[in-house]
Design brief:
Helix content is about 25%, strand content about 35%. The protein is built from four helices and eight strands; from the N terminus they run E-E-H-H-E-E-E-H-E-H-E-E.
């Protein structure tokens, strides 16, 4: 069966995490508080936008229209939404680019991001679409660098002083993994 990136029935599970498509009912005050939290967004371009129901709905529908995946991350035990993930597809080059956010403060720095990230990597390695998995992050976001590197993605490039974080230049690191070369397959 061919991989359908826009699948609305996606469900990925591990010991503590369940990942499903982001739904309209996930747009709530808690989620908006994550997007507007300066500490959570300090490494993201989202820091430059004040999010509300309208900006979030616009993003939600744009992701669907462009056939990318916008996903919710849940803690299995409490069934609490703890974060989100995105997979942007480059259909011409068969590239899947991943991003992740653990927004719920109770679940930060406890391995949930790593667990969710690894689920996404395994999912993309098993599909028939993805030729290459990519990701990028601000170099000073050490937790994200660690998650990406431990998942098997390889460092590809650094854009020096590309972003401003707290008005200071910050480099961006880019990572990639050709799926046919993965030892994780």
């Amino acid at each position: 069966m061919a991989f359908i990136p826009s699948s609305l029935n996606l469900k990925l599970t591990s010991n503590r995490v369940c990942i499903t498509p982001f739904r309209l009912y996930n747009i709530n005050l808690k989620y908006l508080s994550w997007l507007n939290d300066p500490k959570l967004m300090c490494y993201s371009n989202q820091q430059f936008t004040t999010h509300n129901i309208f900006t979030t709905l616009k993003y939600f529908f744009r992701m669907r229209m462009e056939r990318n995946l916008f996903l919710s991350i849940y803690d299995i035990d409490s069934t609490t939404m703890i974060g989100t993930a995105t997979i942007y597809f480059d259909f011409n080059h068969r590239i899947s680019d991943i991003g992740i956010l653990i927004g719920h403060s109770r679940f930060l720095a406890r391995g949930y991001g790593t667990e969710a990230w690894n689920l996404l990597i395994q999912y993309l390695l098993s599909d028939s679409f993805t030729r290459k998995i990519t990701a990028g992050c601000v170099e000073s976001n050490l937790a994200m660098v660690r998650i990406i590197e431990q998942s098997g993605l390889l460092f590809e490039a650094r854009r020096h002083d590309h972003f401003l974080i707290s008005n200071k230049p910050a480099s961006i690191c880019y990572y990639g993994l050709l799926t046919h070369q993965s030892h994780l397959h």
